[in-house]
Amino acid sequence: RIALPELPEGIESANPLDGPDLLTPPRLSFPFPCAFLFASLKCLLELVPEDVAEDLLSNVDQPLQVAKDSKLGKQYLLCDYNRDGDSYRSPWSNNYEPAADDGIKPSDKLRKVEVEGNDLFQKYCGQYYDGGISSFYLWDQDEDDQTGSFAGSLLFKKDCGKVSKSGIEKGVWDAVHVVESLPGGKGKVDYKLTSTVMLSAVKKDMFKLEGNLTRQDNKALDEKDGHVPNIGSMVEEMEGSMRNSLQQVYFGWCEQVIASLRNAGKQLPENVINDLKTKTKI
Known about the structure:
Elements: H1 34-45, H2 50-59, E1 65-68, E2 75-78, E3 83-84, E4 87-89, E5 96-97, H3 108-128, E6 133-140, E7 150-159, E8 170-183, E9 188-203, E10 207-222, H4 227-259, H5 270-279
Antiparallel strand pairs: 1-2, 3-4, 4-5, 6-7, 7-8, 8-9, 9-10
């Protein structure tokens, strides 16, 4: 028998004599740093059966990966919503890479909305994030459904690089907005928005912040205004609210801790305390 390394708290090791599973998936519920999530999930997918792998990919929020459209040369984001097997669909060319002949694509009518959304949200990304990458994907809820219901996902990724103007060694913002659209009454459309933000910020020798936040919202908006403006207004409002929440939870708490620092033996000089406060600001 091969001796397995000790597992972190929250993971249960299965008895090799009871079955082929090395790990029991339902116990994989402990908090995981965003920076290690992608690599850990990749290793886990090699151990579990294919049907379990599909469930993991669709239910585990992971940092967004970047790909480049080989035809148009534009960058786009990878997620479970544009994946079919091992291929991913580009929102720019509507082609799968690697090629997938039977890959799912939106209807012609929905594709027009998708193209409009990608152009608009790329401008939104440049204005609100001062750069970054965005991708907008739509798909029909049911091919035989004539009501016009659909679902989609809007993705944003902002990576400040290794060193930002404020001295941040690493800063990544990944936002995943999943929207479901259903026809309502009296010219209205019912939208259900589920937003998840994954934040990672590292300042060398100072702090390391990693976490995620998920929020939901439901609204009935006028159909005549268009799906892209309606979804855009909901996402804009949601992102503003989530940014404020993250600032209060993470950075507000960090500043509060720094403000309460004291030396039990000797009072720190005022200029040292002020310098610490300044360096911890994002």
